[in-house]
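This part of the workshop introduces the protein records we will be handling. Getting from the letters to the C-alpha cells is the skill we practise here. The record below serves as our worked example for the rest of this section.

…
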Amino acid sequence: MSGAIINGNATITMSELTGSLSNGSPLEIKMAIQLANFSAGSTSENGIFDGDMTVNIEKTNSANHSVGISGAYLHAVSKRNGVTQSDRTLDSYDLTTTYAGQNSALRASDSLSGSSIALNGMNVTVKTAQSLVYAGTDPSTGSMVITGAVSSVILTAVDSGNVRLDFSATGNGVVTESKTMTWAQLKTSI
C-alpha cells in the first residue's frame, strides 16, 4: 500500500515453523501476536487494534489445511476521515476454518461482539451454533445466532443458495417470524 502509515506496538512470537512453503508440501505455523494501540492505514482511513491473537496454520497438502485464530481479547476500530466506521470486540474467541478439497467449514466458538455504522450503531453478538460448511462462496449447511439488545435471529443455511432467518422478538429463542431468502439478498440487505 503506497503511503501507508503504521504506528503503535505489535509483537509477533513465532513458536513453530516446520515444513515447506512450497505448494503441496506439509506445513505448520504457530505464532502469538500482541497488539497495543497498533494502527495501520492512510491519512484518511485506518484501523486501530488492541489485544492478543494466536494463529495456527496446518497444511497436510495443497487441498487440505486449517487456519485457527484464537485469543482472550481483540478490539478493532475502523476510522475514515477521523469518524469511527466500526468498533468491534472479540472476547475469548476461537475461529477455525478447515479446508478439505473444494469444501471448507468455519467453526466459531464464544462470540464476536461490536457495533457498526452499517447496523446503525447497534451492538450485536454473533455466535456459530453449528459449523458453517462452504461448498463455494456461501455456506451450504450450518447456523449462527445474532443477538441484539432485545431480539435475536438464527441464520440457518438451507443450501448453498438460500438461508432461513428465524427471528425472536424477545431474544429468548422463541421464533416469532421466519423468512427464507437467497444469500445474495441477505448480503445486500446488510
The chain has a mean pLDDT of 85. The first helix runs from residue 183 to 189. The CA atoms of residues 48 and 77 lie 5 Å apart.
